[in-house]
């Protein structure tokens, strides 16, 4: 976590404003990379949702993809069977994921880090199995195809993905703004207190369990929103959205970008995509090997030290 | 019905041998090693490769698999894992995930992603009946080997000096080293043996569980269930947990095939909700 | 006013707290002393709800709080400090005090308006920072503070919670002799209507601060009374202060 500056931490710092503006401007500046921008925005939103529960509340989750996948399938099924209106579908999917988060939050309240790893992994695995078995609804291993979205506020989704990119970017910017207000509010500072010292947090009167449930539900909701955006902008939802790789990748994104200062998701998503593109062009089939190697080296060297090479010289 | 029970027991014992190393590592070094499945996979592939390419008989490959994987485990412990003990759990998780990714991709690249077939020797194939219970020969073999291993482990833990050193180090590493116990050596040997057992389990289990590069990811959750439910303070805890898991999985898949592994996960979550520190620990959690 | 009745705690075969009935009157300056291992911190854990008793009750201002969770007891005014600092490593003293003060004002659940813009909370924090001499380090991360400042913050956090009953677990523990007076001063400035239960080994602090004393030995109340009486009590001297003690 960056050391806090004097004055008012809630005031937007220049670099935060710059980053926010750069994100908004990227849609205008990179018209031919709309599909990539869409992917990065979705991934950044997903990572932001994990940052809330991991970086701010200290919950280590290996199954955050459960909510991402739930949102994706909910949005796809809603568009296919109820109505193809994107914003309504987005809202519904977000609610579904939030509900799932609320229900599973009971599991992360007690026990050690290992227990939490287990149950988060377990919930994601259960959903994966469910999606696999209920293939009548979900298309099973083939995935849910043919999700055709209606126009977004009157504008049809185009093939180049410009509308999709705008859609996802707006969602990301809105979420960033909302979360920023949240983390500087009393609720947000309570979460940080909880993360730093759960014992003392309850000793100053903070209702620890209620806080955990609230932030876990919110994290799930935002993850579901990201999943819904993916399903809506690609017209497709498959088991891949619930796969362990999803949970591991988003964790890696946060590791690259840094946790606990809210912008790690954005920074990490950009870094991750760049790395993925680079590695895939080099070794298309086995790029996970290099990701694995990167993780191992990263942790051995020390997460904060890797990105501050001048520390090595000390 | 009893056949199912027997199959479940065989599966459970196999899971125990596979997971016991993970349980002890977690209890001893407080290290969450998600890459444990990679050691099991290595054992499986060693057996397959030795049989296919070098014509080594199946039974001979088993101790070789154990030894080679144990050696690899010792090497990795000394060079990499040892640096990770003091790091926060998140870092340990990331590290072991990284290792798994590397292992999976490396095997995929060098050997290919197809399912490996183990050609069992003739005397281990087929089944026979005892009082209407169908006993698969190979499963009986698995039960026998695993039972022997379990007994050996229990004997080592309770009767040998190494066993007491290990138990002391699990209880309190600082005090143990203060008593002159070389805790680093205990860690090294334990990790090596635990990985070796995983390798042996992978070799034994290749025929029953299947073997392909995704093995570590597929079975990771099973190993973790055994450890989380069984606890890390004994080996009878994980044994009972593994048996419970094996029987639940086999009977669940038989009676409600549509839901399959779902039952196992739901059971695990229910148990962890009820007893977060594990089902079979006597003490109030670590 | 805090009252326990027949409070007991058993761990397996060990009776850690044995039938303790203790009353901390309103506005009291009450010390709890006893040899190491007597169960003083266990008793505090029972009072604050970190541990559940095997028998007995705890009452706060007439209400039975035995079944309440720790944070609920704090919300009713029962606040403690810890013998080993329990602080928020990445938060600054200002942020930590702010959230404690906000919680005392019932505002810790607000999620929209920034905490640092809350004037009332800010004013309260300035007061506390001045009172505990933390003003010069208010923007530094707690993890970077020297031990003496951390100890002061430990107590300041408890005061920020607007306690009605304050349980101080060895507030001067580990503080070098030259800095102890800051701890003493801050304790002397506690509002008179706050009831204080002080656990201490430092007899200077006990005799300067407390008006009544309870002596805990092996989990049970060994002696209970005014500070002069306890200081003169031969049995207490024998079991705790040692023969030929020069204090009092």
Give a topology summary.
The complex is a heterotrimer of chains A (314), B (286) and C (248).
Chain A: H1 14-29, H2 34-56, H3 65-81, H4 86-105, H5 113-133, H6 135-138, H7 162-184, H8 186-196, H9 198-203, H10 208-234, H11 244-257, H12 264-282, H13 287-301, H14 303-306
Helix pairs in contact in A: 1-7, 2-7, 2-10, 2-11, 2-12, 3-4, 3-5, 3-10, 4-10, 7-8, 7-10, 8-10, 11-12
Chain B: H1 2-29, H2 36-54, H3 58-79, H4 89-110, E1 127-130, E2 133-136, H5 137-159, H6 161-171, H7 173-178, H8 183-209, H9 215-230, H10 236-255, H11 262-274
Chain C: E1 2-11, E2 14-24, E3 29-33, H1 40-48, E4 55-60, E5 63-64, H2 70-75, E6 78-80, H3 93-104, H4 119-131, H5 147-160, E7 165-169, H6 180-188, E8 195-199, H7 203-209, E9 212-217, E10 220-226, H8 227-232, H9 234-241
Parallel strand pairs in C: 3-8, 3-9, 6-7, 7-8
Antiparallel strand pairs in C: 1-2, 1-4, 4-5, 9-10
What does this molecule look like?
- The complex is a heterotrimer of chains A (314), B (286) and C (248).
- Helices cover 70% and strands 0% of the residues of chain A.
- By secondary structure, chain A is an all-alpha fold.
- In chain A, helix 3 runs antiparallel to helix 4.
- Chain A is globular and about 55 Å long.
- In chain A, 55% of the residues are buried.
- By secondary structure, chain B is mainly alpha-helical.
- Chain C is α/β, with parallel strands linked by helices and 248 residues long.
- Chain C has 9 helices and 10 strands.
- In chain C, a hairpin with a 2-residue loop joins strand 1 (2-11) and strand 2.
- Classes of the chains: A mainly alpha (314), B mainly alpha (286), C alpha/beta (248).
What would you say about this model in short?
Chain A has helices at residues 14-29, 34-56, 65-81, 86-105, 113-133, 135-138, 162-184, 186-196, 198-203, 208-234, 244-257, 264-282, 287-301, 303-306.
SS strand fraction of chain C: 15-25%
**Total helix count of chain B?**
11
Strand count, sense and barrel status of the largest sheet of chain C are: 6 strands, mixed
Radius of gyration of chain B over alpha carbons?
19 Å
Structural class of chain C: alpha/beta
- Give unreliable regions of chain C as ranges: 243-248
Instruction: Report the largest inter-chain contact.
Output: A-B, 42 and 47 residues
Number of helices of chain C: 9
């Amino acid at each position: 976590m960056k050391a806090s500056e004097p004055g008012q931490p809630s005031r937007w710092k220049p670099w935060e404003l710059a980053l926010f503006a750069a994100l908004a401007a990227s849609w205008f500046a990179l018209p031919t990379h709309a599909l990539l921008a869409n992917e990065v925005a979705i991934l950044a939103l997903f990572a932001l949702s994990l940052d809330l529960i991991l970086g701010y509340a200290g919950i280590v989750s290996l199954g955050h993809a459960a909510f991402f996948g739930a949102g994706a399938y909910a949005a796809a099924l809603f568009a296919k069977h109820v109505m193809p209106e994107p914003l309504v579908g987005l809202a519904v999917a977000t609610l579904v994921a939030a509900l799932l988060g609320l229900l599973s939050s009971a599991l992360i309240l007690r026990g050690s880090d290992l227990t939490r790893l287990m149950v988060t992994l377990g919930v994601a695995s259960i959903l994966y199995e469910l999606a696999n078995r209920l293939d009548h609804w979900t298309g099973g291993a083939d995935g849910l195809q043919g999700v055709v979205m209606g126009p977004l506020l009157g504008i049809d989704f185009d093939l180049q993905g410009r509308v999709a990119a705008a859609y996802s970017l707006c969602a990301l910017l809105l979420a960033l703004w909302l979360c920023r207000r949240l983390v500087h509010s009393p609720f947000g500072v309570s979460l940080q207190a909880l993360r730093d010292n759960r014992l003392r947090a309850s000793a100053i009167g903070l209702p620890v369990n209620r806080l955990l449930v609230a932030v876990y539900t919110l994290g799930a909701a935002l993850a579901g929103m990201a999943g819904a955006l993916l399903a809506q902008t690609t017209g497709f939802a498959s088991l891949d959205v619930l796969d362990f790789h999803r949970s591991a990748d988003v964790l890696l994104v946060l590791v690259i970008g840094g946790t606990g200062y809210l912008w790690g998701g954005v920074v990490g998503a950009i870094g991750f995509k760049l790395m993925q593109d680079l590695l895939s062009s080099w070794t298309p089939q086995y790029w996970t090997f290099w990701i694995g190697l990167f993780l191992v080296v990263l942790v051995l060297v020390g997460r904060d030290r890797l990105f501050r090479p001048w520390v090595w010289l000390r | 019905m009893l056949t199912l029970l027997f199959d479940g027991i065989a599966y459970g014992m196999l899971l125990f041998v596979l997971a016991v190393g993970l349980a002890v590592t977690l209890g001893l070094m407080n290290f969450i090693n998600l890459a444990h499945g990679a050691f099991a996979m290595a054992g499986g592939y060693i057996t397959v490769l030795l049989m296919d390419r070098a014509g080594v008989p199946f039974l001979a490959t088993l101790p070789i698999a154990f030894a080679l994987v144990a050696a690899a485990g010792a090497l990795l412990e000394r060079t990499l894992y040892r640096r990770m003990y003091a790091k926060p759990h998140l870092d340990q998780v990331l590290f072991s995930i990284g290792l798994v990714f590397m292992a999976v991709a490396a095997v995929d690249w060098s050997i290919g992603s197809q399912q490996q077939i183990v050609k069992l020797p003739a005397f281990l194939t087929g089944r026979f009946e005892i009082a209407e219970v169908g006993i698969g020969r190979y499963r009986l073999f698995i039960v026998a080997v695993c039972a022997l291993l379990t007994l050996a482990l229990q004997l080592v833990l309770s009767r040998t000096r190494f066993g007491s050193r290990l138990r002391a180090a699990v209880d309190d590493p600082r005090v143990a080293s203060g008593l002159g116990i070389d805790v680093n050596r205990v860690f090294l040997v334990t990790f090596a043996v635990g990985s070796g057992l995983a390798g042996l389990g992978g070799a034994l289990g290749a025929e029953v569980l299947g073997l392909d590069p995704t093995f570590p990811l597929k079975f990771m959750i099973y190993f973790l269930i055994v450890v989380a439910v069984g606890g890390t303070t004994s080996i009878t805890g994980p044994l009972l947990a593994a048996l419970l898991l094996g029987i639940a999985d086999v009977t669940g898949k038989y009676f409600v095939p549509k839901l399959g592994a779902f039952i196992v996960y739901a059971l695990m979550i229910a148990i962890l909700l009820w007893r977060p520190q594990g089902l079979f620990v006597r003490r109030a959690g670590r | 006013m805090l009252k326990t009745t027949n409070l007991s705690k058993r761990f397996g075969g060990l009776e850690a707290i044995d039938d303790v009935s203790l009353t901390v009157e309103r506005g009291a300056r009450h010390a709890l002393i006893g040899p190491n291992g007597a169960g003083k911190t266990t008793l505090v854990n029972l009072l604050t709800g970190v541990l559940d008793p095997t028998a007995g009750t705890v009452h706060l201002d007439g209400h039975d709080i035995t079944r309440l969770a720790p944070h609920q007891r704090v919300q009713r005014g029962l606040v403690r400090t810890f013998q080993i600092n329990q602080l928020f490593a990445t938060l600054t003293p200002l942020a930590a005090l702010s959230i404690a003060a906000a919680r005392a004002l019932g505002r810790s659940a607000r999620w929209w308006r920034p905490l640092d813009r809350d004037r009332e909370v800010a004013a309260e924090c300035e007061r506390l920072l001045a009172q505990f001499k933390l003003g010069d380090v208010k923007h530094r991360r707690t993890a970077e503070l020297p031990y003496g400042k951390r100890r002061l913050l430990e107590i300041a956090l408890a005061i920020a919670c607007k306690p009605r009953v304050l349980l101080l677990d060895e507030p001067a523990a580990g503080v070098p002799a030259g800095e102890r007076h800051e701890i003493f001063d801050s304790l002397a400035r506690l509002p008179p209507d706050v009831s204080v239960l002080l656990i201490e080994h430092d007899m200077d602090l006990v005799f300067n601060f407390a008006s009544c004393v309870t002596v805990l030995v092996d989990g049970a109340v060994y002696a209970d009374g005014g500070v002069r009486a306890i200081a003169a009590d031969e049995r207490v001297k024998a079991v705790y202060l040692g023969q030929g003690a020069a204090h009092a």
